[in-house]
Amino acid sequence: MQSSARNAPEPALTVLLTADQIRDRVRELATDINRAYPAGRRLHLVSVLKGGFIFLADLVRALNRQVTIDFVAVSSYGPGTHSSGEVKLVKDLEIGIEDRDVLLVEDIVDTGQTLAWLRTALRARHPRSLCVVSLLDKPSRRIVEVDVEHVGFTIEDRFVVGYGLDCAEQYRHLPYVAVLDQRVEDPGERGPDASNGDLEER
Ligand code: IMP
After folding, report:
1. Under 8 Å CB-to-CB from 92, ≥6 apart: which residues?
2. How far, CA to CA in Å, does 198 sit from each of 70, 77, 154, 195?
3. Which of 44-53, 83-92, 188-197 has the lowest mean pLDDT?
4. Rounded to the nearest whole angstrom, what is the distance from the C-alpha of residue 3 to the centroid of ligand 1?
5. What pTM was computed for the model?
C-alpha cells in the first residue's frame, strides 16, 4: 500500500513507462548485451552523468557479470531552448579505455549532438570497441545521425522526467518515466532544464 502511494504520479506528470515496464525492458537489454559480449570479453561501462545513473545501476545488476564502470559528465551551451551542439567535457573518465570493450550508457538520445560528440571523443582514445545503450530514444528530434546499438524505448517528441531524467534537477528519483505537463513549466522546444541559456549540465 505504501509503495503504491509512493509510485503514484505527481499531478503534473503523466506516466509513460511504468517501473515494471522499465524493469522488464532492462532485463531484455541485458540479455542482448550479454549475447553481444561473450563471457570472455571484459565489458567496460561508461555512464553519462547525471541522467544515466539509475539506468546504469539497474543495467549492471541485470547483466549479472563482471564489469568495470566509469563516468563522464558533459555540458552544452544552448541559447534559449536550443542546444547549440557545443558539448564540453565537465568530468573526464578516471580509467583509460584503450583496448577496452566500451559500452556507453545513456539516458536519452534527443538531437544526437551529445552522443555524436561523445562517440568521437571516446573513439579518439582507441577503445577495442565502442557501442551505445540508451534507455530512451527520440528519433524525431534528431539533428545529427548517430548510431545507438541498443535502445530501450523509442518515444515521441515529449519532454520526459523520472528514472534519472530531470527537469531543473527535479524528478530524477521517480521509479517511472513520465511526461511533464507543459502547462506547469514552459520548457519550450527542448525542455525545461535547457531554458536558461547557460551552461547546461546533462
Ligand atoms: P541531445 O544532445 O540533444 O541528444 O541531448 C541529450 C541530452 O539532453 C540527454 O542526455 C538529456 O540530458 C537531455 N534531454 C533530452 N531530452 C530530454 C528529456 O525529454 N528529458 C530530460 N532530459 C532530456
Report:
1. 72
2. 26, 6, 28, 8
3. 188-197
4. 29
5. 0.86
